[in-house]
From TrEMBL:
Keywords: Magnesium, Metal-binding, Methyltransferase, Transferase. The lineage of its organism: Eukaryota, Viridiplantae, Streptophyta, Embryophyta, Tracheophyta. Pfam families: Methyltransf_7 (PF03492). GO terms for biological process: methylation. Gene3D superfamilies: Methyltransferase, alpha-helical capping domain (1.10.1200.270), Vaccinia Virus protein VP39 (3.40.50.150). It comes from Manihot esculenta. This is S-adenosylmethionine-dependent methyltransferase At5g38100.
Amino acid sequence: MSPSTVTILKSPPMKGGDDEYSYTKNSTFQKETISIAKEIIDEEIAHKLDIKGLLSATSSSSFRIADLGCSVGPNTFIAMENVIEAVKHKYQSQGLTSQIPEFQVFFNDQDSNDFNTLLRSLPHKSPYFAAGVAGSFHARLFPKSSLHFIHASHALHWLSQVPNEVVDKNSAAWNKGRIFYTTAPEEVRKAYAAQFAKDVEMFLDARAKELVAGGMLVLIIGSFRNGISPSRTLASVLFDILESTLLDMAKEGLISEAQVDSFNLPIYFTSPDEMEHIIEKNGCFKIERTELFNPESVVKATLSGQACTMHFRAGFEGMLGNHFGSEIIDELFYRHSKKAEEFSSRLQASSNEGNQLFLALKRK
């Protein structure tokens, strides 16, 4: 195991396997985001990655890549092949075709991730050597200066834990009757923001040790435009639907109000300004590029009640089952689907506000 003194409170991973409710079958949005980011990654590797310097900085002759928060679906394979294709093209464009290295890819997620499904579905004749690495990306995962490129998509918005204050009845940030922070009092938002800043600092410190000097870290994170309220985003409306569904079930006695009061999502969405401030304060990385984009076509395609619910179930079934009991899951998501249809106008109105933030960072 990697050395670490950090205590991480784990959240259940995305739903494994390949059945109708699995992340494998319900991650179209993430796939589209990776597809859009491909062109940006190509440009950053072409113009900013010093391939000669990177390999000379390690004793290894292979180019090592890690995908953090890889989950189980095919999206991680697409992302890794995009990176490798761009690195190969960089060698070829510099007349170094004969020096193209071998590639090694590390697929990382927490130890409860369905690595069996992930590794069984590896593409045949993949252009790299593959390994699974279990552990939280909020702590160290790899030896010092052992990686050349790190990728993390739709992962860093997951917190290492729910902020302690929001579940403390004696705290001004106690989030009674809510499961998220976007429509909560300011004290709740501040508690979430502080936890996010702490987690990103841990994440960046760990990656700074693992990357060689000049190595690249690419992040794709749920975000929103500077200056708008996060309550206007699509994610906030989706969580409002889940919260409303849980409160209805509590009123009917299917779950308890105490269970709702003690349940909070360990997720935080940042703005570009907030994220850049955290990175600059950390000081280990140079920001090469930031860009907001919105995969609007696929967002709108997933806004029907059923599609929205399937996407949500793939991501949150484990967490909700652990807290409220697995026996209520089918009923919960049946109600969620119906309520999503009722909220359709709000979902459509918010679909332009939710964005993905692309960041390309280089290790100083």
